[in-house]
Amino acid sequence: MSEEEKVEEQTEEKLENEVEKTEEKDFEAEYNALKDQYLRANAEFENIKKRLEKEKLNAMAYANESFAKDLLDVLDALEAAIKVEASDEVSLKIKEGVQNTLDLFLKKLEKHGVKEIESACEFDPNLHEAMFHIESAEHQSGAVVQVLQKGYKLGERVIRPTKVSVAK
């Protein structure tokens, strides 16, 4: 083998090595790109899975919201019946029965997460609906003067705000 052939052979080997290294770098770059793409897709999938699980839990927790809202009218009627004056024995027995029914009804609502919004002294637009403003020397401006209709929550969600009058 001549010197020229050896040099040519070495040059070819170097070129082949460089081509192999370039191909290896290309494969490594492609591998890293695909790995990154996979990790991002997997993370996105996990986020979607968590979001759907959260939405499912919310849907289950608040599935009865509409039904509970409808029952609040019945609750108001029972509370109004309790406030009626009763003087004779029959009326008192009826009123006692209505009170027992109201107590049972409230317990069942509470069992399913429906609770009365506590009446606060300060107006909170997240919990209260101001029906009107009145002048009051006894109350500070923005204070709840009178509760006109009780409000209720289902879990942490307000299903009916408390209707109030607010001091100017």
UniProtKB/TrEMBL annotation:
Gene Ontology terms: cellular component: cytosol
Keyword Chaperone recorded: yes
Keywords recorded for this protein, A-Z: Chaperone, Cytoplasm, Stress response
This protein's name: Protein GrpE
GO BP, one annotated term: protein folding
Subcellular localization(s) per the UniProt record: Cytoplasm
Disordered: annotated span: 1-24
Keyword Cytoplasm tagged: yes
Function recorded in the entry: Participates actively in the response to hyperosmotic and heat shock by preventing the aggregation of stress-denatured proteins, in association with DnaK and GrpE. It is the nucleotide exchange factor for DnaK and may function as a thermosensor. Unfolded proteins bind initially to DnaJ; upon interaction with the DnaJ-bound protein, DnaK hydrolyzes its bound ATP, resulting in the formation of a stable complex. GrpE releases ADP from DnaK; ATP binding to DnaK triggers the release of the substrate protein, thus completing the reaction cycle.
One of the record's GO molecular function terms: unfolded protein binding
Protein family per UniProt: Belongs to the GrpE family.
Cross-referenced InterPro entries: GrpE, GrpE_CC, GrpE_head
Source superkingdom: Bacteria
Record's compositionally biased regions (Basic and acidic residues): 8-24
Subunit structure, interactors included: Homodimer.
